[in-house]
Amino acid sequence: MSTGKFATAINCMDGRTQLPVNRYLIEKYGVDYVDTITQPGPNKILANNSNQTATAAIKSMVMISVQGHGSKKIAIIGHADCAGNPGDETTQIAQIKDAVEKVKSWGFDVEIIGLWLDENWVVHEVV
Asked: Which residues contact 3 (CB under 8 A, 6 or more apart)?
């Protein structure tokens, strides 16, 4: 197992989301590193089970982060102005909450949270 404390971010591939999310997780939860799993609109993919191949890949990468790096926290992210998930804030926050429940069903012994990035790239915890 790796040294240092890890969190896992299931984040959008949009490069604008990476730094705010990583900074938030490092500062708020005191982790040293953030394993980042990216897909376009991952909250929609996980909430709607719309792409089983992508969902299986995300689950496999989460397993590596949890088992290989000892990650104790998983964050699922949605954001404003998302090309992969152009839904409005209300819709995306509902998807984040559903995605959190989906990832909880995988049975990893970790805390799972949802994060929303607004149009100013400010992180808000929603679950």
From this structure: none
Residue 114 covered by a domain: yes
Within a domain: residue 1?
no
Is 94 domain-assigned? yes
| SS3 (DSSP) at 123 | strand
pLDDT digits (tens, 9 = 90+) for 16-75: 999 999 999 999 999 999 999 999 999 999 999 889 999 999 999 999 999 999 999 999
Collapsed DSSP state (helix, strand, coil) of residue 15: helix
- Domains in the chain: how many in total? 1
Asked if residue 24 is part of any domain, the answer here is yes
51 Cβ partners below 8 Å, 6+ apart? 45
